[in-house]
Design brief:
Layout (H helix, E strand, L loop, with lengths): L1 H11 L14 H11 L5 H8 L3 H4 L5 H7 L2 H10 L7 H14 L2 H25 L12 H19 L3 H14 L2
């Protein structure tokens, strides 16, 4: 199942790049899958992690398609990790923070892995780009972006405080955005 998820995500994200870079987008969902695989051996959860952005960011990909190709549970996990793009950035990110606080552990794992991958990218690029880095993002404001990543940190603290991925995430958030 994981190999099929990799193949599906690779095809779905074909031609996409990470914001403001020449890095193929597929590297992000693959990294999210690896991070989740360090927290669980559940192939459906790992597959959902790899597929987490396909409904949200890939034209023509639906939950029904993922359910048919993988399983109902994988489709549900991907849907629970997807944002409603009809809402404003602040509405979406506020909803994500709230959702992660109350979501089932598997959804929280995928959310943590997704945000950790994002923070690794920020940490890699920030020394090179400096304050220009924030221009890649929709909000273009370090403080607002920091609000979001700190909110995710708080939302996941009770469930993951001793998990290495969370500890790395917390460390990167503090390094980039302060306490």
């Amino acid at each position: 199942m994981i190999q099929r998820a990799i193949a599906f995500a690779t095809k779905a994200h074909d031609g996409q790049l990470r914001k403001g870079t020449m890095r193929p987008y597929i590297l992000h969902p693959l990294e999210v899958g690896v991070i989740v695989a360090r927290m669980t051996e559940d192939e459906e959860v790992i597959s959902a992690a790899i597929l987490h952005d396909t409904i949200e960011d890939c034209e023509g990909v639906t939950a029904q398609m993922i359910e048919q190709m993988f399983s109902k549970r994988v489709a549900e996990l991907v849907q629970k990790e997807s944002e409603d793009k009809s809402k404003t950035w602040m509405e979406r990110k506020g909803a994500t923070i709230h959702h992660l606080k109350v979501a089932e552990r598997e959804v929280q794992m995928i959310g943590l892995a997704d945000k950790l991958s994002n923070m690794r990218d920020i940490d890699r690029d920030y020394p090179e780009c400096g304050e220009e880095l924030w221009q890649r993002f929709r909000m273009k404001d370090k403080e607002t972006i920091g609000w979001y990543y700190k909110g995710v940190e708080e939302a996941l603290r009770n469930s993951f405080s001793e998990v290495p991925a969370y500890m790395e995430y917390r460390s990167l958030v503090e390094k980039i955005f302060g306490k």
